Amino acid sequence: MARLTSLDQVSPGVALPRYRLGAHGCGIVHIGVGAFHRAHQAVYTDDALAAEGGDWRIIGISLRSTDIADALNAQNGLYTLIVRDAAGDRARVMGSIAHVVAAAREPGAALAALTDPGIRIVTITVTEKAYGIARGSGVDESNPAIAADLASPRAPVGVIGLLVEALRLRRQAGTPPFTVLCCDNLPDNGTLLAQGVTDFARRLEPELARWIEAEVAFPSCMVDRITPASTNRTYADAERMTGCADQAAVESEPFSQWVIEDRFPTGRPAWAAGGALFVGEIAPYERMKLRMLNGTHSMLAYCGYLTGCTYVRDVMLRPDLASLVDRHLAAARSTLPPVAGVDLKHYAADLRARFANPAIAHQTYQIAMDGTEKLPQRLFQPSLELLSRGESVRPFAFATSAWMRYCLGRTDEGATYALRDPREEQIVRALAGAGDARSISAALHTLPGFIPPALAANATWRSEVDGALSVMLEKGMAAAVRAEVASIAEAG
Ligand code: CS2
Q: In a mutational test of the pocket of ligand 1, which residue from 43, 227, 256, 293 has the highest number of ligand atoms less than 8 Å from its CB?
C-alpha cells in the first residue's frame, strides 16, 4: 500500500483539509508531537486554517523519539485522525503539521525553528514529568535535563533549556519573542512554566530573565480529549479507511475541549473555529477537569488495573467499580466552585459516558503511569481543601491507597509489572522492608515533595489511607473494592 504523502491519494469519504496546504507558512512550533497533540491542538489549528487562513501551520519538535519525525516527514506531515464511538469510526486527514524536527538528531534545527521570526507561538505537550519545575521554587536541579542544560545552556536538550536559549537568541537578534502555551495537565500551567523559564534564565543571565518577565506571555489553558496510544490496529484502520499506509495515525473519542486564557500579544490562529473557548480566567476549568476527569481516571486506573480491567471501558462495565467512579466524580465535584457555562452534574454524566465509550481502548496501565507527577493536583490538593472544611476525604484516600497498592508492583495473582514512574527507583527503595499497610503508607508519605506535609500530618487522612490499604492487602483488591462499595451503601 502506498504511503500517505498527498491528499489526492486519499479514498473518497475521508474528510480532508479545507485549505491549500502550500498557501500557508508556519507560525507555531509544537514541542512533543505525541498522539495527544495530533488529536487535539493540531486539529484546532487545521480548523482555524480552514476558517481564517493565516501563516499558522505547525513545525513539530520531538525531543527524544526520532520515530514520529521519520513517520510524519515521510508523509509530508499528513496523518489520519480516527474518531471512534458506538456509532462507528470516522477518518479525517490533517494538514496542519508541516514537518517535524527530531531534536536529538538535529539539535541545531530545533533552535533554528524556534528562532525563526515567523514563529509567533510555541505550544507544548511533553507530559507532566518532562518540565523539571518544582512548583513555587523554580527549576529542579536534580532533574537530568535541567542539570544538563544549566551546564551547557548553548546546546539544550530539555524543554526549559530549549525555550530559554531560543528566547536569548531572539532577543540578541532583535526578533520579538514568541508566546508560550503549555498544554499539559498541570494546574496553572502557564504560570508554572513562566516560573520555570524565568528561574532558569536568572541562573544564567539575570538581564535575560527580566526581559522574559516583561516581554513573554505564558497563557494557561485546559486541554481535554481522551487519546489512547496508537496501536497496530490504529494504523491498520487508517490504511483501510484512507487507502494509504499511515504510520502517524492517531485515534480518539469525539469529545474535545480547549479552554484558553486569551493572552496572545503575538497573535493567534482562529482556534475558536474548532470550538476552543477563550476566557479571562482559566483556573475554574482547569480544576474541574483535573479533579473530575483526571482524578477519577487515576482512581479507576489503579483499581481497574489491579482487578484485571485492561481498558477503562471494562471498568465501566463492572457495577462495583462504576459506583466508585460515581462516588469519586461526586466528591471531586463537591470541591469545585461553580464554573461559568458548565453544569457540573451534566459534566459528570458526560464523563461517565466518555469513560464507557465501547470503541475506545484506553489502557488502565497507560493512565496508571507517572502517579507521583499526577496525584498532587488530582487527589491531594482537593483533599486538603475538604479537610479544611471538615468534610470527608474518603474517596480521595481510597484512590491514594489504590495507588500505594499499585506501587508494590505485583497483582494479587502474583503478576509483576513496571510502575513506569519517574520516581520508580525511589519508590522501590522506600518500600524495601515495608510489609504492612502502616509501614507502606508511612514510607510513601515521606517521599520528598510529593504528599503535602499538612496532608501527611492529618490523622483523619492517615487513618483513612491506612485503613483502606490494609483491606486491600489482607483481602485482595477485588474484595476491597466490594467492601468499599458496601460501605457506601451502608452510609446511604
Ligand atoms: C489521563 C489523561 O493518562 C492520564 O493520566 O488521565 O491523559 C486523560 O486521558 C486526558 O487528560 C484527557 O483529556
A: 293
**C-alpha cell of residue 61:** 519538535
User: Are 295 and 330 in contact, with CB atoms under 8 Å apart?
Assistant: no
Q: Tell me which residue of 203, 187, 400, 430 sits closest to 290, measured CA to CA.
A: 187
Q: In whole angstroms, what is the distance from residue 328 CA to residue 311 CA?
A: 18
Residues 122/28, Cβ–Cβ less than 8 Å:
yes
Using CA atoms, how far apart are residues 379 and 335, in angstroms rounded to an integer?
11
C-beta 43 within 6 A of ligand 1: no
Q: Which of 286, 367, 421 to mutate to test the pocket of ligand 1 (most atoms within 8 A of CB)?
A: 367
Alpha-carbon Rg for the chain in angstroms: 23
* Strand 257-261, strand 277-279: pairing: parallel
Q: Which residue's C-alpha cell is 501563516?
A: 55
Count CA atoms within 13 Å of residue 15 on its CB side: 13
Banded pLDDT at 491 (limits 50, 70, 90): confident
User: Mind listing the pLDDT tens digit for each residue in 396-443?
Assistant: 999 999 999 999 999 999 999 999 999 999 999 999 999 899 999 999
> Which grid coordinates belong to 402?
489504590
What is the per-residue pLDDT for 273? 98
Nearest of 247, 233, 229 to residue 71 by alpha carbon: 247
**Given the CA of residue 297, which atom of ligand 1 is nearest to it?**
6
Check pLDDT > 90 for residue 489: no
